[in-house]
Batch of 4 targets.
Target 1
Amino acid sequence: MNTICALCGTPLTSAEMLVGKNKLADGGYLCTTCFNKAISINKELINTLDQYYFAEITGMFLKSKIDASQNTMGTQQTGRGHYEYDAPTRLDEIKDQIVALNARLSVFANEEVNALEHILDRDEKLLAIAECIYVHNKREGIVFATPKRVVFIDKKILGGIVRNEFPLREIISIEHIENLLYSILKVNIKGASAEFKLHNKNDGRAFCTVINKGVEGSGAPVAHQAGIQAFHQNIPDLAQEDVFTTQKASSETIFEQLEKLGKLKDMGVLTEDEFTEQKKKLLDKL
C-alpha cells in the first residue's frame, strides 16, 4: 500500500490512510492538505475523488494554476500594489501534455514522470506515453514518443535513471498487438527490435499512429502487412501461456497469477468481466 501522498510525496498518517474519501481511482491517496486543495478546486471531489485518476487530478491543479495566473495578469493594479503569480514550470507543461493525451498512468509512474523535465528538450512535445515493462531487461517504467524519438525510462530506487532511446530516423516501423490482459508494443529498428508490455492494453494505438506516420513522412520503409501478421502469430494470448495450458499447474504458480490479476484490475488494466474470466480459468487448474 502506498504510504506517501500521490501529489506532494508527504508521508501519510494512519488516519489519512483510513479516511477512504481521499483515495484515487488508480490506488493512490492524497494527504489532508492536497485533498483540501482538490476540494477547493472542485467541491464534488469530496464524494467522487475515487472516480478520478492521478493524471486527471494533476490536470485540475494545473488548470487552476493557469487560470489564477491569467486572472492575476488581467487584474488592474492600483497604487503601489504588486501582484505575483507562479508561472507554469517545464514539468507543469509536461504534465499538461500527459493529461491532454488521456494517458492512464498510475501513481507508480510518478518518479519517471517527474524525471521527464530533465530528459525532454525544451521544445520537445509528448505524442504518446504509457506505463510498461521493457521485455529485454524486465524493468518497469514508462515509454514515450516524441517527434524525435521513442524512449523508455525507469527511475531507480537508489537514484539515477535507466534509459533506452530509439531515434525516429532508425525506426523502421512500430506495431501494437492487443491481448486479453495486456498488449505488446514492438519497435522495429535497423537490425533489431524492442518490445514493451503495456499495462493498459489500449495505449499502443497512439504510438502506432504517430510513429508510423512520422516514419512514412521521413521516407523510411514501413513493415508490410505480411510481416505484421507474422508478428501476431508469434505473440501468444495470455490465456495460452503455461499457467493456463499446463495440465498440472502448481498451486503456488496459480496464486502468484491470481495476485497479478488483482493488481492489474486495481490499476484499471482489466475490467471486472476480464478479471472474473481469467480468475475462473486459474481456479479451474487447482
Note: Residues 76-80, 220-249 have pLDDT under 50 and may be disordered.
Target 2
Amino acid sequence: MTHLPPNDDPLIIAGKPYRSRLLTGTGKFKDLEETRRATEAAGAEIVTVAIRRTNIGQNADEPNLLDVLPPERYTILPNTAGCYTAEDAVRTCRLARELLDGHRLVKLEVLGDPKTLYPHMPETLKAAEILVAEGFQVMVYCTDDPIQAKRLEEIGCVAVMPLAAPIGSGLGIQNKWSLLEIVDNAKVPILVDAGVGTASDAAVAMELGCDGVLMNTAIAGAKDPVLMASAMRKAVEAGREAFRAGRIPKKRYASASSPTDGLFF
C-alpha cells in the first residue's frame, strides 16, 4: 500500500488538495515498469511529463506512459522541457491540453541554454502571461530570485518553483536565503524544482518552509531508484513535520537538556 501523510496538512495546487508534497518526474527510468514502481514508492500524486519526449498518446504504436500512470489515479503535469522560447513553450502546452482532453494544469519551463538548463526568465515571464491569459493553470520553473518569483505570482501562476541548483546537478540547496525570502513573501505554493541530490536535500527544502519538492534525476539516476523514491518520500514528510513543529534557535554555546530550576542540591 502506498503510504501518504495525514489529511490535516494538504498541499493545495489550483484549488485541489494533495496529501503528498513530493512531485516526481517520469523521465530517465530504464522502463515504464520502473517508472511505475518508483512513483508508487514516492507516494507521488502529481507526476510531471515532458510532452516533447514522452508518449502520452501522440504515437499510437509506442508504449504509453498513461497505461502505467493512469490520469484517474495521478494528476498528470505536462511540462515544457526542452523549450527555449516562449513561443515553443506555449505551443507545447496547447498540445498537452489537446492530448489530455482540455487539461489546464501545466509546468512551464523555458530554458536559457543546453549546458546549464538555467531558466530564461524574460521568455518565462512572457510565456506565463500568455498561458495564464488563455486559462492555463501554470506551475512555473524559475530562478531563485525573489523579485522574479513574486512577479510570476502576480501574473497569476498557481505555484512558483525556484531551482535549488541546476537541473540534474544533485548539488542541493545553494542559496537558503533566497528560498526563505521567496517563501516568506509568497501567497501561492513554493516548490523546490531541480538540484536535489539526496534525501537530506529534500528535508532541508521542507524545513525552510517550502510547500513541496519536485524531482526526477535524484530518483531515476540513483543506483536503486525505487529505494531512493521511498527515502525521498520520508525526507519530505519529515522536513514538513519539522517545519510545522518549529525548530529550536541556534546558539553558540551549549545549554542543559534538562531544567535546572528546583534541584535538591
Note: Strands lie at 11-13, 16-18, 22-25, 46-50, 75-79, 105-108, 137-142, 159-162, 191-193, 212-215.
Target 3
Amino acid sequence: MKNSLFAVLLLVALSAPTIYGQCLAEDDNIQHTKADNPLSRNRLYKGESIFTLKMLEAINTATPTENVFFSPYSLYHVLLLAFFGARSDTEKQLRNGLELHWTEDKPVIWQAYNIGKKSLASRFNQNTDIQFSSVDKLFFGKQIPIRECIEDKFFEEIEKLDYKQDPDGQRQYINNWVENITQGMIKDLLKPGSITKQTKLAIANAAYFKGTWQTEFKPEQTKKEIFYVSNDRQEFVDMMHVQATFSHAANEKLGCHILEMPYKGQDESNRISMFVFLPPTVPNSLDKLLAQLTSDTGILSEIVNEGIPRTVDVKFPKFNIEKTVELKPVLDRLGLGFIFESSADFTGFSEKEPIGFDDILQKSKIEVNEKGSTAASSTVLFSFRSSRPVEPALFHCNHPFVFLIYDYGTQAVLFNGVYRQPE
C-alpha cells in the first residue's frame, strides 16, 4: 500500500456591507503584458514558504501538546483566491500576510497563480509513482452577480450552487466534491448547518498526494518499540527500519539532524521529498527547534540543498494522523483575522451583492507505512562539531520530531506536521 496525504480547506462567506471597487487592476489588458514573467511563480511560492513557517508556529502555539498536521499549500491557495477578490485595505493586508510584496500589480500575481496551476497539471498528469493534485473552487451562490473579469479569469474555478433553495443539498454536493478529489479519504467535511440560505460563497481547495518511498522499509523489520513522548512518558509504536543511502545533514542553526527521504519516479521537474527534523533527546529541544525554524524565513531554501549522501540507519514510526483545524484563531495569530470583520472589502468578486467571510476550516489526513510517506525522529544526543560521525549515521525516530513534504518544482511545502505521540 502506498502512503497518502490529504487536505481540504474551506472558507465560507455570508454577507457584508456594500463597497465598490475596480477589477484586478484599473486596466487588466495593459498590465497583463507585465504578468507573463517566468520568475513570478517562483516569487509567489517563495512567499508561500515564508507563510508556511508562520503557520507552523501559529498552529503549534494553539496546540502545543498535540500532533500537528496541515497543508500550508491548501490554506495559501484559498487565501490567495480571497486576495483576488479583495479591495482597498483588505487587499493591502492580505498582500502583506501572504508575502506578496514582490509586485504591486495584481494581474502579475494572477498570472503566477495560473502558471503554477497549469504546471502542476502537466507535471503529475502521467506520473504513476507520484500522484499530486490540488484543485481550487469558488462555489458562488447562483444568485450572485459575479464580476465579468472574475468569471473570465477564474472560469475553471467557478461553480454556481443554489444555496437559497437547497442549502443542505449544496453542502452535500461540496462534500461529494471533496471526497472525489481526495479519492474517498476525506468524507463529510461540512457538518449539517454549516451551509445556509445566507451563504454567498465557499472558497475551497482539495489537495491529494500519494507517493512510494524511493527506499522502502521492509515490513518484516517493523517491530514494537518504545516512543519517548517525554522524560516521564513512554508508549509503544510500530517502528519501521531500513539502512540505506540518504541525504543527511547536521544543521547547527536549527540544532538538529535532517534526513531527506525522496519518493520514487522522480526527475528534476517532479522531485518531491519528505524532510525530517530530528532534535536531540534533551528537555525542550523540540520547542527550540520549532522556534528557530519559524524565526528564519530563508531556512527552507538552505535545508533542501545542504544534505550529504551517506549510509544512514533509519527507524521511524508507522502512523496515521487525521486533523480538523478551526483556522479562525490561527489566522488571528497570523494577523489575518480581519478577513472575517464586517468592514472587510471583497467587492472584487461582486459589486452588486456584498460578500463577507464567516468561517474557515481545514481537514487533513496522512497515512504512513513501509511503502511510503511521512514521519521520523531519533534518540541520539547530537554534536555539531566538524568531525564526521562513525558510519552508518543513526537516525532513530523514537521521540518527537518535525516533518514536511517538499515539492522541488514549485519550492513549496505541500504538507507539514509535528509528531509528538502515537494516536
Note: The first strand starts at residue 3 and ends at 13.
Target 4
Amino acid sequence: MGSITISWLAALFGLALAIFLIFKRINPVYALFAGAIIGCLIGGASFAQTVSIIEKGTQSVMGTAIRVLAAGVLAGVMMESGAAETIAHAIVNKMGEKLALMALALSTMIITAVGVFIPVAVLIVAPIALTVGKKSNISKLALLVALSGGGKAGNIISPNPNTIAAANGFHLSLSQVMIVGFIPAIFGLIVATILSGFLRKKGPIVEDGDIKETEESKSLIPLSKALVAPVLAIVLLMIGPIGKLVHVSCLETINIDAMYVLPFASLVGALIMGKGRQIPHFVSNGLNRVAGTVLILIGAGAIAGLISTSDLSIQIVHLLAKIGLPGVYLAPISGILMGLATGSTSTAVILATGSFGKAILATGTGALAAAAMVHAGATVIDEVPQGNYFHITAQSMHMTIKERMTVIPYEFCVGLTMTVVATILYGFILK
C-alpha cells in the first residue's frame, strides 16, 4: 500500500466535522474518529489506507497516554486525600483578605502545578473563593478570572496531560517543558491578578445560597505532609536539568521518566500522610479521572494522523510567508487554533504537535522553543463552550451560561499574555 497525501481541504473538513459533532454533544472520542475517517475518505484514501492513517495517528499518542495514566495516580492522591485543599486553604489564610484575589489565583496555580487537573483545581478552590467573595464583597466574575487565570498559569508548568503531550510531541523530557513554562506562567499569574482586581465590583455577586451549597467543614491534614508528594515528584523530575545547570556530571545522567516518578512520589506522599490503606481508593479514583482524557487523546491521535498526512501544515507555512510572518509563529498559532477547535488544552497540544510538529521544526524552530510556544498557545482560548472546562467552572461558581461567557475575554488575555511572552522569549531572544 503506497503512501498518500490528503488534500488540506479534506483535512480541514474532517476537523470541522469533528468540531461540529462535539458541538452537537456527540462523545468527543467518536467525534474525532468520525472526522478523521471522513476526512481521509473524501481526501482520496482507500479504506485500507484510512485504517493505516488512523492506526499510525493513534500509535503516536501511546507514549503520552501511558504517562497520563501515571499522572492519574498523583491526581488521585492529591484530590482524594485532601492535600490539594490543604494547600489552597494555607495560601488563602496566609495572604489574608487584602490579597484575596492574588491568593486565590496563586492557590489554583500551585494546585494545578503540582499535578491536579485544571478543572478539578478550580472545583477545589471554588468553595474557598465563594466564601472569600461573600466576606469581601468580590464579584463572581473577578473570582473566576483569578481562579481560571491562575489555573492556566499552573497548567503550563505541571506534570499534567497537556505538558506530557508537549514533551512527548517534541521528544523532550517532562521537566524541560515544565521549566520553560515558568516565566510565561508568572506573567499569566500577574495578569490574572491585575484583571481580577479591576473586576472586583463588576458582575454578579456571591449569594448566601452559593455558600450554603458549597461550604463544608473539614479537618485538613498538616501542610508539611500535603506537600510531600508534589515536592518529591518535582525534585525527582528536576534532578537531571539541575545537574546540567550546575554542571554536576553525576546528576546530569539521572533522567527518571515521569512514568516512574509520578506514581512513586504519590505513594510515598500517601504513606507520609498516614493514608496507606486508602492507596487503592486513590489509585482507582485517579484512574477514573484520567480515563476520559486518555480516550480523548486516542481520538485526537486519529485526527492528528489525518492532518499530518495532509499538506495542511505546508499551506499554513506558505500563508505565513505570503503575509510576511516568520515561520516561528506557526508554533503558537497551531496551539491557539487547536485550542479553539477542541476546547481542551491537552487535546489541542496533541493535535498541534502531531499535525504541525514536523512543519514547526522545519522552520528552524528548536524543539524546546516549539514545545513552549505550542503549549502556551493552547491555553489562549481553550475555555470555549464546546469543552468541558467551560461548563465545570460555570457550575463550580454557580454562574449561568451567559455569566460564564463574560469571563472568556479575560481568560483569553491571560492565555495570550503567556503565549506572547513564550514567543518573544523562546522564539526570538533565546532561540
Note: The radius of gyration is 21 Å.
